[in-house]
Amino acid sequence: MKKLILALVVSFTATILVPTQAQARDMTFTTTLKNYNGDGAYLALYLVKANGQYQQTIWIAGEKSKYYKHLSSWSRGSGQRASEYDGLSGASVGRGRTLNVTLGIADELIDAGYQVRIDTSVEDMRDNPAEISVPLITSNVGKPFLGRGYIETFQFSF
Questions:
Q1: How far apart are CA 26 and CA 105, in angstroms?
Q2: What Pfam families does UniProt report for this protein, alphabetically (predicted)?
Q3: Which of 27, 94, 96, 128 could be cross-linked to 149 through a Cys-Cys bond (beta carbons 3.0 to 4.6 Å apart)?
Q4: How far apart are the C-alpha atoms of 119 and 110, rounded to whole Å?
């Protein structure tokens, strides 16, 4: 009887500790900047729920974290915690240049009411919180969306 109970406890514990694996697909996020007059832009690409609540960081373009506060909507949602962008950051993006980011995105987030948002900021110029806000739905794949600040176009693809 003790062996049976021990086997059940071990089996139950293993079931709890082994998470179910979600399916993910590689998505490429392409952001092309306008040819504005100014330094390289800082960008925060992130996901929000349908109600606008921050969900997760996709990418941060800009190496100096002391300037991340200018990416205000992302900053407020993420709390600027390093764990939110560790391994998900790179150099700022120069005017007229294109940023391509390819990451695995869980299938459960696609067509589920989430949005991709992008905050932008350029030194000594205007900050643009949620410059881009695009529903993460399959019918938006490959469609270019226009920015209202430094972004010329944004699109994503599988």
A1: 6
A2: DUF2271
A3: 128
A4: 21
Domain residue limits, the chain: 22-157
**Sign of the dihedral defined by the CA atoms of residues 92, 98, 102, 106, in that order:** positive
Residue 82's closest CA among 100, 69, 65? 65
pTM of the model: 0.85
pLDDT, tens digit, 9 for 90 and up, residues 96-142: 999 999 999 999 999 999 999 999 999 999 999 999 999 999 999 99
User: Is the torsion defined by CA of 36, 155, 116, 98 positive or negative?
Assistant: negative
Q: 22-157: which CATH number, 3.90.640, 1.10.287, 2.30.30, 2.60.40?
A: 2.60.40
**Where is 75: in which H helix or E strand?**
helix 72-78
Give just the sign of the alpha carbon dihedral 65, 31, 120, 41: positive
